[in-house]
Amino acid sequence: MEFSKSLINWYLQNKRDLPWRKTPQPYPVWLSEIMLQQTRVAQGLPYFLKFIDAFPTVHDMAAAHEEQVLKLWQGLGYYSRARNLHATAKQVAFDMGGNFPNSYAGLLKLKGVGDYTAAAIASISYGEAVPVVDGNVYRVLSRVFGVETDISSSGAKKEFTALAASLMPKKQASEFNQAIMEFGALQCVPKNPNCSVCIFNRDCVAFLTGKVNQLPVKLKKTKVTNRFFNYLIIKDANGNTLINRRGDKGIWHGLYEFPVVETETLTSEAETVALIEATTALNFSPKGIRLLHPDVIIHKLSHQKLHIRFWEVTSDTVLPEAVDIEQIKTFPLPIVIHNFIENNWQ
């Protein structure tokens, strides 16, 4: 097929030199695909290298404590993926003798492995002719072939999967899948792609009809909830502070954070001080309370927008459960808290 042949030739000439491409073994392919879901390669690559250094094999990851995995994952977001990563490592190491399933159907049985990841591993590691469908694939196919189906609709995935399958050379499944993802990442980018140098500009429906910026079609918008967090950085008589582990539900579950007072709106400083004084999170009477950062820190998640302030709360007594800052740095923390500690702690 002309499309596939041109795409694979482009890939062989332009592909990035990435460590997981040096071997088709399923462990590094699986690790990279989990990390790169909704994460750019530039951001994900350092994490991949840290994980491979800490856990050279799936057995090494399986033997690690979950908190070590979460700490290394810190900053990538979507921490449920890190938990699934660890659970899958244990599943493969302990139940499968360290061998990943060697088929698309088998890979789907692993925790946290969906259609996309299973297709990527099956095609790259085992040459199985199953197409990958992710954001890059939606974008390339919708533009080149003028597909105006809403990609958030119920039938879109099936339609695009069928189209990708019809284009895939059965004996070059690995090259084709990697090529179409790489083409979407480097050439057919979401905004302002350089169509003048695109290998498909003579045939691309979106380019020829002026619809490059309109495709792919996505009508469903994600509803974003605003939340307002006031983190309490408690300093006792020894300069130590308190830290809590979040529960097993909601955002950042299982990670550690400072005691928090959440409000329904952005309250004034005076209102917030009164709320902090009355909170049951404190089992002592504060000696002083002050805002540590003049600006509200905005932290965006997929479905939530967090408005965060940090408050120093001092006590003239020694709190037996308090720990020092160097110890806190060893815990898995939400990246917004990690960054605040790194940039502001004195």
TrEMBL record:
Binds 1 [4Fe-4S] cluster. GO terms for molecular function: 4 iron, 4 sulfur cluster binding; 8-oxo-7,8-dihydroguanine DNA N-glycosylase activity; adenine/guanine mispair binding; metal ion binding; oxidized purine DNA binding; purine-specific mismatch base pair DNA N-glycosylase activity. Keywords: 4Fe-4S, DNA damage, DNA repair, Glycosidase, Hydrolase, Iron, Iron-sulfur, Metal-binding. Residues 35-186 form the HhH-GPD domain. It comes from the Bacteria. It catalyses: Hydrolyzes free adenine bases from 7,8-dihydro-8-oxoguanine:adenine mismatched double-stranded DNA, leaving an apurinic site. Its cofactor is [4Fe-4S] cluster. InterPro entries: A/G_AdeGlyc_MutY, DNA_glycosylase, HhH-GPD_domain, HhH_base_excis_C, MIG/MutY, MutY_C, NUDIX_hydrolase-like_dom_sf. Adenine glycosylase active on G-A mispairs. MutY also corrects error-prone DNA synthesis past GO lesions which are due to the oxidatively damaged form of guanine: 7,8-dihydro-8-oxoguanine (8-oxo-dGTP). Belongs to the Nth/MutY family. This is Adenine DNA glycosylase.
